[in-house]
Every structure is written in C-alpha cells, then in structure tokens.
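Recap from last week: sequence in, structure out.
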Amino acid sequence: MFFNRYRKKQEGVIRFYDISSPATKIITVVIFLACIFMLIVSVFPAIWVFLASFKDIAEFRKSATILPADFDLGKYIKTWNELKFSRYYINSFISVTGSVVCAIIFNGLLAYVLGVLKPKGHKIVFSMVMWSLLIPPTTSIVALYVNINRIGLNQSFLPLWLAMGANAFWVVLFKQYFESLPKEYTEAARLDGCSDFQIFLKIIMPLSKPIIAVVTIFAVTAAWSDFLLPFLVLAGTDKETVMVRLFEFRTASKATDVDVLRAIAFSIIPPTIVFAIFQKQITKGIGAGGIKG
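Predicted structure tokens:
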C-alpha cells in the first residue's frame, strides 16, 4: 500500500517501473524515514515553544516534561494585552505590505532590464549583482543607517520598503524566469506599439505569477522577521514592528521566560501559516526560475 502512490508516476527520481526492484523499495523507505526525521527536527523547536508557553514560571523551571499541566488560553490573552500586540501586528503588516510591493516592482524591473532588454553593459551589471551576493548585508548597515538619517527617512516605513527592493537573490530569480518566457510575446507587443514599461506591466508580469508568488512569500517572511533595520529606524516610535517590540519586551520589562515564549509564539504564527499554505508554490517557483528556455 505504501508504494501505490508511485504506480502512476511517469517522471521523477522514483517512477512506477522502478518499484519492482527490491533495492529501490528499500531506498524509498530510507528516504521517507529520513524526511520524517528532518521534519521532526525542523518543527520540534516551534512545538516546544508553543507547549512550554502554557506553563507558569515554576513549572517551566522545575518540570522536565514537554506537555504542560494544563492548557490555559488566559495566559496568552494576558500576554497579548500586556504587549499590546494588536498595534504591533498592524505595524508589521504595513511593513510587510510595502516590502512585498517594492520587492516585486524594483527587483522585477532590474531583472527585466538584465534578462529581457539587455542593454549595453548588462553583463557587467549582472556580474555586480552576483558579486553582491558574497557581501554580508550587515557590513553596509552603518552606511545605510547614516544615509537614512541624512535624507530624513528615519522613523518611517519607507527605508524598510526600499531595502526589500534591492535584493540580489530575488533579481536572479526574476531574471532566470524572465529569460525562460517565449520572446514572441514581447516581440508581438512591440509591434502593437507597447513601450518597454508597458511590456513589463502587461506581458511579463502576468506571465510571471509563479515566480512572483515565490518572491512574495520570501519577502513576507523576511520583512516580518527582520529586526536590525526596523530597530534602528523605528525604535522609540509608535511604528515599531513585532520583532522590535519583542526585543524591548524582554529587555525593558519584568517579563519572565514564559512570557517571552508566549510573545515568541505570537511572532512566529504568521510566517508559519504563510509557509505551510504556500510551500508547494515555493518549490515550484524556484524550480521554474532555474529553467532557461
């Protein structure tokens, strides 16, 4: 019964006619067990945080069991009210929304120029984009923060949005996908009198929904979990995001370890839900972005 799912597979690493081999069956079971093990290792920290957050501080420090004595949702409600998480959730959603828009438009435009228009010097620019992948983002944080303050963009969401619009990895994903699209569409649009920007908006972007979905998911998780830049730009204002508030809650209050665990649980719920819903789109979109037609 375990191997029935492979009976109709015509492609992939393991296909229907491979199942007749005993060695292949053993390898399949081993791979399946290895995947289960990696799944347990991956989700256990989140499950532990969720279960431990139901304990009080005495039980948390003395009990060695994973399961709490009771599941009292009132503790979560109390932590939510103390943190005023509603406001910080709204701030994070504003940050995430603008970041997604900038990530798609600006990275997509650069990839469109490098992968479709290909003006003179595009190879040099693309080489610089690839080299920038080797530079850790934190090395430029000081210069970035200084420039943000000089032009008066501090204490606003705009720097967070623009930072997401300059991601070399997403540019590469867009470029590879754009190059796989049939050139006949763009050529026909030019014959109809469309400008380069109109082709980008009306032809390229509608045909690139899979890779846009992937970049959107990456941008959502990156913007939601980002701490350093929002802390430098928004700390001390009424625009602080969930991650900034979580840090201040731990350092500037008398919160116990269990209170912090509940706050962490609140912070990881949205990206976890997004990833659980769209994980297939992530793998499909990355695979599509790596195929050149």
